[in-house]
Specification:
Blueprint lengths: L9 E7 H11 L5 H9 L3 E11 L9 H9 L3 E6 L1 E4 L5 E4 L3 H11 L5 E5 L6 H9 L3 E6 L10 H6 L2 E4 L4 H4 L14 H4 L10
């Protein structure tokens, strides 16, 4: 599929971890983050790849920690913060892990050094961020999916973006192969760990 990048463009990736994980899962595949990076390195000059996720602090073992550590050593700039736990109106304990402000701040700070921002999220709250980035002369591509049920990308975000990449269309290039593992073969934690589900409401 056409990616709509220009040769030599300065590109940065901004990955809303929980949102991208949910979109890929809705389409029935797991993302190979090394392949994801390689795909976008071919499109221009990749300046930075940011990955945003909240971490549950009070657990002895966080299921996402191995993925975070692996990404940190393999070309991604990690932006994390502790989740907040709260009780909703019906008395249920919930975890909140929203990274919107951190992501938006980084896009605004980086914009003058970039030609093209690639936002991996379908969150409609980012429409204003996309518009503000475009006013700085930077093109914005949104990566999410309309092929899940329900669609994972907000219509207003998709319309605002200069380009929309359907996640399903690049699945073959960024998905992880599920090869059978031999007994006793070490597990690559970066592959097997996944984003836990958070309540992403602000």
């Amino acid at each position: 599929m056409p990616m709509n990048f220009y040769p030599g463009e300065r590109i940065a990736l901004f990955v809303d971890g929980a949102n991208l994980y949910a979109a890929a899962r809705a389409l029935g595949f797991d993302i190979d983050y090394k392949r994801l990076l390689a795909l976008f390195k071919k499109q221009g000059r990749l300046v930075r790849a940011f990955y945003y996720t909240a971490l549950i602090d009070d657990q002895e073992y966080s299921p996402i920690r191995p993925l975070v550590d692996w990404l940190d050593y393999n070309g991604y700039t990690m932006v994390t913060k502790p989740t907040k736990e709260f009780t909703d109106a019906s008395g249920r304990r919930k975890i909140k892990g929203n990274m919107d402000i951190e992501l938006a701040t980084d896009v605004m700070e980086m914009a003058e050094r970039l030609d093209h921002v690639v936002l991996f999220s379908g969150d409609g709250d980012f429409r204003c961020l996309v518009e503000a980035t475009q006013r700085k002369g930077v093109r914005v591509t949104v990566v999410s999916t309309v092929k899940s049920s329900p669609p994972m990308v907000a219509d207003e975000l998709r319309r605002q973006a200069d380009n929309f990449i359907e996640l399903q269309d690049i699945a073959d290039e960024i998905s992880r192969a599920h090869a059978p593992r031999e007994p006793g073969e070490p597990v690559d934690l970066a592959e097997d760990e996944e984003e836990p589900a958070y309540d992403l409401a602000t």
